[in-house]
Amino acid sequence: MDIHQLTDSLTVSAQVTADDLNALAERGVRHLICNRPDGEGPDQPAFAEIKRAAETAGMSAHYLPVTTGKVGDEDAAEFGRLLASLEGPVHAFCRSGMRSTTLWALSRSPDELTPAEIVRRGKAAGYDMSSVVARLLGEDESGGLVLAEYDVVVVGAGAGGISVASSLLARDSSLSVAIVDPADIHYYQPGWTFVGAGIFKPSTTAKTMASLIPRGADWVKAAVAAFDPARNAVILEGCRVLRYTRLVVAAGIKLDWDAIEGLPETLGRNGVTSNYRFDLASYTWQLVQELQGGRALFTQPPMPIKCAGAPQKALYLSADYWRRQGRLANIDVQFYNAGAVLFGVPEYVPALMKYVERYNAGLNFNHKLVRIDGDRRTAWFEQTDADGNPSEVATEFDMIHVVPPQTAPDFIRVSPLADGAGWVDVDQNTLRHKQFDNIWALGDVMNAPNAKTAAAARMQAPIVANNLLADMGRSKGVAHYNGYGSCPLTVERGKIVLAEFGYGGKLLPSMPTWLLDGRKPTRAAWFLKERLLPPIYWKAMLRGREWLATPVIGEK
Questions:
Q1: Which helix (H) or strand (E) holds 305?
Q2: For 138-162, how does the pLDDT look when each residue is reduced to its tens digit (9 = 90+)?
Q3: Which residues are catalytic?
Q4: Which residues does residue 148 pair with via DSSP β-bridges, in sequence order?
Q5: For residue 535, with 0-12 CB atoms within 10 Å meaning exposed, 13-18 middle and 19 or more buried, which class applies?
Q6: Total number of domains constituting the chain
Q7: Residues 192 and 118 occupy one common structural domain
Q8: Domain span at residue 110?
Q9: For residues 189-207, average pLDDT
Q10: pTM for the model
């Protein structure tokens, strides 16, 4: 844990975990302030978890969440009031420490610290406060401090962002490219289903971000606050500015844990888990191993969500383990789906239904999880009947695997790039923004009607790279995206139904059916998922090697 000292009584840092609290307590910290809203990152513990652990360690915990880049004067004033009310050492944290430092800087009066001293202390702690000081002095901040200008700025260093940057540089190494992302760790999120089933170790699904940034690209380790497409500018936290000639947005998706009442307070305990968070997937496997009998619930929220098959994958792999251990007859397995069907592409449903029957799993459609009480081991669902009338039903559980509702990230939803639902508004064929000609998007953040999967991003990245370069006159012809996505549905240990499809549910198999028929469970698909896809992800997709993903020019 990297702790930065701002004053004798205030330290700041990046995200704190429960494991860090004893070390903070040993340093004499008596109070925590969380300035990070829940749900910003896939490895982020909820504030409720931090608060519970802090109180156990003898500290108080306070929640003052601020959206990145949106630190207002009232936010700073409230931070100042909170600091003044607390006696003893205080530690504030957010994603990187920048928001907490900005709140501190803006809450100081000139009588306490001069602007020069604020800049000095911020710099010593590793945070550039020069633009914040310009704001304190009342200088025009509309343009902010311009850090640099690039041919291409890529927002987001997930699967889509790194892949598209690598594809661009593989085609034209003379481009100046920046990748903007504050995260230190990059995750292979498709592997978390296997972590939750005891097949993969968590460590195999994570690598340092620094090791994956493509050669020739600059990594701007900061969070994006806003977009100013009229000025070809990306506004970063701390009022800093990056200018671009062309922009690619690959900012991912937000997991909205807070949308389910009581969920943040009980995640990771009381039998409540989720494979959608890095640190919880191992808890899933622990619960599966320990459950001898009772009721196991698996939930799926309304669409859109990333990897729509993942909620039922957790069910199949858990039930298969219980079947092999001879426990399944003692466990009531129930699937609660906010939607009306098991899977959106009908051709794959017959194979899936055979496993639903094998595991004697109950299917509860049009049931949306709205509330959970971990201490009482009870979940409440909003059930919608055929006429659209809602009612609430309660169900007790011994274990529940929860998939949270999902939205576009906050800074995307409020931006001029978003459609009415908050997603980046692109042409579904070219992935170019419908309003701003020098902006493209890919991955989970955009509004094309395709499945939000890593396989989709693998196909989209070369298409965006080609089309961006074609717009620059450095490539011939425009490529079109057909909506391809893939969902390897792990129906049992050793077999997978490999769903591959595009726009409108059209089947788009990547191999001939005599070799691999995705409509049937096969060991070949399992071998692909377990052995081949991880190295393809790390060593090909993220490196700009477009195996089975070369874009076809001019085809829809």
A1: none
A2: 543 444 578 899 999 999 999 999 9
A3: 307, 487
A4: 242
A5: exposed
A6: 3
A7: no
A8: 4-136
A9: 97
A10: 0.88
> For the chain, what is the mean pLDDT?
94
Quick one: 235 exposed, middle or buried, by C-beta within 10 A (0-12, 13-18, 19+)?
A: buried
* Same-domain pairing of 353 and 442: no
The length of the chain, given as a count of residues: 556
Q: Give tens-digit pLDDT for 488-508.
A: 999 999 999 999 999 999 999
409-439 burial, b if ≥16 CB within 10 A, otherwise e? bbbbbebebbeeebbbbbebbbbbbeebebb
Let me know: does 30 contact 149? Beta carbons within 8 Å: no
Position 141 scores a pLDDT of 43
Crossing angle for the helix pair 159-171 and 454-471, to the nearest 10 degrees: 40
- Same domain? For 266 and 299 the reply is yes
**Residue 19: which CATH number?**
3.90.190.10
Residues 354 and 229 both lie in one domain: no
Residue 397 tokens read as 């559980």
CATH assignment of the domain containing 241:
3.50.50.60
Task: Write down which residue in 405, 430, 449 finishes a domain.
Answer: 405
CA distance 450 to 471: 24
- Reduced to 3 states, what is the DSSP secondary structure of residue 44? coil
Is the per-residue pLDDT at 133 higher than 80? no
Inside any domain, residue 331: yes
CA atoms within 13 A on the CB side of 357: 6
Last residue of a domain, which of 136, 169, 204?
136
Per-residue model confidence (pLDDT) at position 138: 57
Q: Are residues 231 and 220 in the same domain?
A: yes
